[in-house]
From TrEMBL:
PANTHER family: NB-ARC DOMAIN DISEASE RESISTANCE PROTEIN, PLANT BROAD-SPECTRUM MILDEW RESISTANCE PROTEIN RPW8. Keywords: Plant defense, Repeat. InterPro entries: Apaf_helical, LRR_dom_sf, LRR_R13L4/SHOC2-like, NB-ARC, P-loop_NTPase, WH-like_DNA-bd_sf. One of its GO terms (molecular function) is ADP binding. This is Disease resistance protein. Residues 158-288 form the NB-ARC domain. The lineage of its organism: Eukaryota, Viridiplantae, Streptophyta, Embryophyta, Tracheophyta. Residues 676-762 form the Disease resistance R13L4/SHOC-2-like LRR domain. SUPFAM superfamilies: L domain-like, P-loop containing nucleoside triphosphate hydrolases. Signal peptide: none annotated.
Amino acid sequence: MSETKQLVSLPPLFQETFKKLLEIVDNAHKSNTTRRVLRSTLRDLNPLLQEIKKYNENLNPPREEIKTLIKEKDAGSDGFRRCWSRIWCKKEDSIDGGDDAKKALVMANDVKLTLIKVREMLQVLNGENFDENFNGGATKGPCSVPENAEFCVGLDEMLWKLKMEVLKDGVSILGLTGMAGSGKTTLATKLCWDKQVKGKFGGNILFVTFSKIPKLEIIVERLFEHCGYRVPKFQSNEDAIQRLGFLLRKIGQSPIMLVLDDVWPDSEPLVEKFKFQMPDYKILVTSRVAFPKFGTPYILKPLRHEDAVTLFRHVALLGGSKSNIPDDDLVQKVVRGCKGSPLSIKVISKSLSHRSYKFWQNMVQELSQGHSVVDSSNEILTCLQKILDVLEDKSVIKECFMDLGLFPEDQRIPVSALIDMWIECYGLDDDGREAMAIINKLDSMNLANVLVARKHTSDTDSCCYNNHYIIQHDLLRELAIYQSTKEPLKQRKRMIIDINEHKSEWWRDEKQQGMIAHMFSKFRRFCVKPKPLKVPARTLSISTDETRTSDWSNFEAPEAEILIFNLQTKEYSFPDFMEKMSELKVLIVANYGFHPSQLDNLKLLSSLSNLKRIRLERISVPSLVTLKNLKTLSIYMCNMNRAFESDTIPISKRLPNLVELSIDYCKDMVEFPIGVCDITLLRKLSVTNCHKLSALPTEIGNLENLEVLRLSSCTGLEGMPDSIGSLSKLTLLDISNCVSLSCLPEDIGNMYNLRNLYMTNCAMCELPYTVINFENLQIICDEETAASWEALNPNLNIEIPQVDVNLNWLFH
């Protein structure tokens, strides 16, 4: 049937919309793929419209309500529910009308389905063209499947059962439950990596970690980002779910498997929102508790003793020899104390490797005492705590482990943030090597895992650990928090304040809550104005979202040296108590939503004379205030076009003692702020993954004390000024992945102190003749660039590293 005939046969209500859409398909400047998708959608819609037309003619349905629904262009949830409610009431009024009533019900349902498709098309008309923003799926997004475990035992039977279920056609939701640390995530990961499962679902395997307090909008934002589409701003949770449905239908031409990992009991209603009627759509839910609503769950039981011993020996032998494991009797006793928990086995077996016989005996004795009878999680926590109790070197290692509990659950912890903290807290060296050694120690003990998002050959000091993260099992995080709260409140080094829709109180355990409530009750009774509540902690961590506000008027933290804000808000105003934090040395502000959070009340920072380090993540950075003693500033994935704008006070006066500046993944950075070039004390400058940056200012030659300059992965950088040759103290230059860089400046040969030059993926970059002046330069580059250097200066030390071939850095 031709499109003209289709228009004539349609109800008048749809003719104009249909015609408009067809015109846009033919005339708008869109891709061929977009035209095919739209045209296919319209043709698929036509039979449904014909049925509605027939029912319109026979039943005289409530046309005004249908018109109202069609006019709901954006299909806002409230308007949609009101209109749909009116139709539903009329359906119920006619429910006894026999066949006509049944047809009315069918018609109403068809209208609903039609409106969903009309909404999808209207989204395209409004500029929400997915194809324009699609990056081809080249990047490993935030909902990618975790790395597959190299070795595990005791999971084969359950893996086979789950595999058979997900390979079936159709729609289903599966539940996998087990105690904390039992290996649910490991099993779900192995399922996703299975060859047959990957063969069926391909790139449509989405892995989402729910955590204890999930945020629907943030989850949907990450799914959009993962799938390579522009992340919309949602008006509400209902809007987020509607758009998620559109996204899944977009990618749902192939089967989809969605893994919802670590779902807590109160999140069952939220899981329901991820259910969509699609041809082949599977949802796997992992949780510590069973959800009967999702059918009979698959229960992952503790490891059998034989499997537990196998796992224990495997982990204990890593990097060692069999002689390091004492007699079998001790092994059996230790394994029994682990209660079949793979997590406990990994942590304790690794800690015992290369230890003395006496140390093993102490561990056996510790494990045989103090078992909790409350639940399995507490029992495993008791087990894990033993490794901390018997550590010979308790000081820095244990303190650093407890610091990991200051960050949100199921979030990657930036290594650079930890380095900033630990340098100031524990007096570690400024280059971050000692801090990195502690991180590697925690990793070797299985108390945390180090994740390198992209291996970089120039990772040699604290300025370049932006690609390094710590990830931690939530049970180990609970252990870190528990260890921090064992001390009396007045002696506590860390204070964790969590304010969200489920928790308006500040302190976690009931005893403290009761004590603080009693204190405020006495203040209200005997005082006109309550005395300030002074927190003695050296480190203060505040997590908050938009669902709760808190009154900080009577709160003080005068001894705090570290302040961490974990935000899930669109806007946040620094609390007034910060003005009196005279000892504050490190400020970390991280927003865990997709869109940057707007900060307010920054003027408070001007009074903090000891503030030395600031890290901002996913923040809209306003103009910086005067911070005369600030040494390190890290800006990560921020909107920063206003941060260095010139005003009455130049940036060199606002930050006169800045030594390190790191700007990473700032997409709105088009021009390098010239005012930074006047900060003469600057020694380390890192501007990386800023793809819109096309040039450096001539004034960069004014940075007479600069020792490290990193410009890696600035893909739009086309050239460098000759003034860079004035950087006489520069020892390290990194221009790796600057794929648009056409040549090095002539004066680069004047940089006699340059010792390390990183040029991987810079094959288009021409070398000037002046490079013959270098004598002690080490060059790390690709083979093609190496050939260019060898032709001009064959006496240099040239290293061709193993290249990380993924392109994640292009699409972050």
